[in-house]
Amino acid sequence: MAKTIYLCGFMGCGKTTIGVKLSKMMGRSFVDMDDYIEKKHHLTIPQIFAQFGEQTFRQYETEAIRELSHQGNLVVATGGGAMTIEQNGTLAKQNGIVLFLDAPFEDCYHRIAGDSNRPNAHSRTKEELLELYQTRYPLYQKNSSYTIDASDSPLMIANRILQLYNR
Ligand code: S3P
């Protein structure tokens, strides 16, 4: 079973854009974990946060990773908080590799500022988001298998991942 590739990193680092591109280049199925959770629970992410709180959403993420970890050959874009939790990284690495997309804060910020579909961005000022980015950064590093420089175009980054994978 070919190892599933899990992309992690801060909101707006490009996990979905790069994941879609990479999955096409590799001929694999792509799973966006946020979409997966929304479909499974018949609720949007903002609804889950509003009705049940972030803790419940985190439990849904762990369940999703556990379910996906039984499959190989996927490219998975995880949500920005998923790989801040060690247990999720351990689960994902059982049959997969976890890649941290290391994009500069300013790039992420411009993509997420004011996005009402992202409760954790919407509820924070720029300064607070920077603080969250800095708190999470070492956790992404710790819970991933490799760190990928994600400051270029999605195509360049997808190619960089392919090179690493085929090495
Ligand atoms: C979150 C990131 C989101 C989504 C949820 C929480 C976070 O995913 O999982 O809104 O806490 O960073 P993206 O990273 O795809 O925005």
UniProtKB/TrEMBL annotation:
Q: According to the UniProt record, what class of enzyme is this?
A: transferase
Q: What is its main location?
A: cytoplasm
Give the residue range of the signal peptide: none
Q: Which reaction does it catalyse?
A: shikimate + ATP = 3-phosphoshikimate + ADP + H(+)
Question: What are the protein's UniProt keywords?
Answer: Amino-acid biosynthesis, Aromatic amino acid biosynthesis, ATP-binding, Cytoplasm, Kinase, Magnesium, Metal-binding, Nucleotide-binding, Transferase
Q: How is the cofactor bound?
A: Binds 1 Mg(2+) ion per subunit.
- Binding of ATP: at which residues? G12, C13, G14, K15, T16, T17, R118
Identify which cofactors the protein needs according to its UniProt entry.
Mg(2+)
Pathways involved: Metabolic intermediate biosynthesis; chorismate biosynthesis; chorismate from D-erythrose 4-phosphate and phosphoenolpyruvate: step 5/7
One function term, GO molecular function aspect? kinase activity
Residues that coordinate or bind substrate: D34, R58, G80, R136
Describe the protein's quaternary organization and the partners it interacts with: Monomer.
**Similarity comment text for this entry:** Belongs to the shikimate kinase family.
Against PANTHER family, the record matches this protein to: SHIKIMATE KINASE (PTHR21087), SHIKIMATE KINASE 1, CHLOROPLASTIC (PTHR21087:SF16)
Protein name per UniProt = Shikimate kinase
State the organism named in the record: Clostridium facile
